[in-house]
Amino acid sequence: QVQLVESGGGLVQAGGSLRLSCVASGRYTMAWFRQAPGKGREFVSAVNWSGSRTHYTDNVKGRFAIFRDNAGNTVFLQMNSLIAEETAVYYCAARRFPDANVIITTPEGYDYWGQGTQVTVSS
Fold first, then answer.
1. Do residues 63 and 102 make contact, with C-beta atoms less than 8 angstroms apart?
2. What is the DSSP letter of 96?
3. Letter string b/e over residues 6-44, b meaning 16 or more CB atoms within 10 A of that residue's CB
4. Distance separating alpha carbons of residues 87 and 109, to the nearest angstrom
5. pLDDT at 72 over 80
6. Could you read off the pLDDT of 4-59 as tens digits, one per residue?
């Protein structure tokens, strides 16, 4: 299985920003999911390999941005104006179809997962 390694989580005050990174070796559509205690794993954002398609869950649009460094096999999630409800473990995920024209938003659609990085937003 492909190893995905997330980093960049931490503690931030509400209204602040964090940038998450995920490193993987290969050509994949990459996504971020998050899981709060007692809740399921929820889609946040995704970008295909070429960068031609991105998708965001509605409640992060305008605040979060996903982008990637293809040469370095790194995908980033820039999170701005964070709110306390976004406290969760954030997971990087990879899908084997790197440039599909449909972004999958369900965990079952992704093939590889990182171990997660904790994001805590204090209010």
1. no
2. S
3. bebbeebeeeeebebbbbbeebbbbbbbbeeeeeebbbb
4. 24
5. no
6. 999 999 999 999 999 999 998 888 999 999 999 999 999 999 998 888 899 999 99
Closest CA to 22 of 34, 8, 9, 6: 6
- Whose tokens are 């409800």? That residue is 85
CA-to-CA distance for 123 and 83, rounded, in angstroms? 7
Q: What is the 3-state secondary structure (H, E, C) of 49-64?
A: CCCCCEEECHHHCCCE
Contacts of 14 (CB under 8 A, 6+ apart): 82, 83, 84, 121, 122, 123
Instruction: State yes or no: pLDDT of 101 exceeds 70.
Output: yes
Burial class (CB in 10 A: 0-12, 13-18, 19+), 65: middle
Q: Which of 29, 37, 71, 33 is nearest to 54 (CA)?
A: 29
In eight-state DSSP terms, residue 85 is G
